[in-house]
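Is uridine-5'-diphosphate-glucuronic acid placement plausible here? Inputs below.
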Amino acid sequence: MKLSVIGCGYLGAVHAASMAKLGHEVVGIDVDAQKVALLSAGQAPFFEPELPEILAEAGQTGRLTFTTDMSRVADATVHFIAVGTPQRHDGNAADLTYVEAAVDGLLPYLNADHLVVGKSTVPVGTAASLAARVAETGATLVWNPEFLREGFAVKDTITPDRLVYGVPAGDAGAHATEILDEVYAAAIGAGIPRIVTDLSTAELVKVAANAFLATKISFINAMAEIAEATGADVTQLADAIGHDERIGRRFLGAGIGFGGGCLPKDIRAFTARAEELGRGSSVAFLKEVDAINLRRREHAVTLVVDGLGGSVVGKRIAVLGASFKPHSDDIRDSPALDVAVRLHGLGADVVVTDPQALENARRVHPHLHYELDRDTALAGADAVIVVTEWDEYRRELSPSHAASLATGRLIVDGRNCLDPAAWRAVGWEYRGMGRP
Ligand code: UGA
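Reply from A.M.:
I modeled the complex. Tokens:
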């Protein structure tokens, strides 16, 4: 099939390359000429495992091209909207400027043979208002939310947990469903569940999923706070409740909490939209989810300050991690970098290391000290804090090796990813999040 993908960020670039890998002919469009140049040369503009390989593979077939020229959408009949919907500067709502611009840019090229497929995360009701504009051209608009995780984006795109199609009622919806089935023929052939809904349900499925995940993380972080007041161990608690299949162990990792370009802004946008709908009280708990999450960053800072005797002024602190999670170079709303910035603000001599995210971190926080080499970051440190659970810190850093480099013996485990006994055995003072 001939597809266009508008917006070539984490979502769009991976979607474009994955669709080309599946055999479709794809043109990816973005306003950022530098990004387009990199993608055209087969290079990923950000770190995402497997993306360079599929870009190279699809590039060789000639089925995948990238451009800044919107008129190239005329080469396709199915158009994916994959632009960002960040938090607005003036409040919690989502900024729909890029989605509106993408649809406006498409309109001149649409006719009754075309299908517009929204993938961006949008407030419920957005698709219905855009559908009216698209319908004037004779084309149909559907919403097909994306559930990919950064770090596993290619796998999640090619073999998703489920497909959700939000389509209009009647023949137009049935026809759109047939077209999407053809786009996703490989996934459907593999038995991946597909749920066909109306537009509002599809939009809500996405924000509800992210709200649930954020709530699950803040739930366990709330339990960590109770554990801290009682001497209990939240990781054992999570293991124990996680054995109940109704609860499940995944996303019960207590620590410095969630960040990234999705969960934080999505729960805020959901709250703002619910308030507009007069249903603010239905999701008022998401404000608490947000508040618990932000408190945990501060708690990690407090553990360092207390562990160093009440002040970090002039103390060298090795911060292991900058990205919002491992397998990513994304630093958007990164709890890890936030902790580093707070410690720096308290007068500490902070040294940040990360295997992938330093370039992005330096761009946003040029005043911090960065070291790509983990051991250089550890050398002479009065305290060490792990804030992103990369294997380089979780599995590959032995407590005795760290002890041979650092001056102090305080290790704060902001992700509860280390073995306390192993660190204590060689003389470290180990402090976890919600662990005795
Ligand atoms: C999230 C969702 O998981 C995807 O399904 C969704 O498609 C995506 O947002 C999106 O809306 O585009 P992502 O932002 O890539 O994906 O990251 P997650 O793996 O969900 O992690 C989010 C944050 O939660 C990270 O900072 C991670 O460190 C934190 N986390 C995760 C915890 O603190 N504890 C856990 O147990 C799990």
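Short version: Residues 121, 146-150, 210, 213, 217, 251-253, 255, 257-260, 262-263, 324-325 surround uridine-5'-diphosphate-glucuronic acid (CB under 6 Å).
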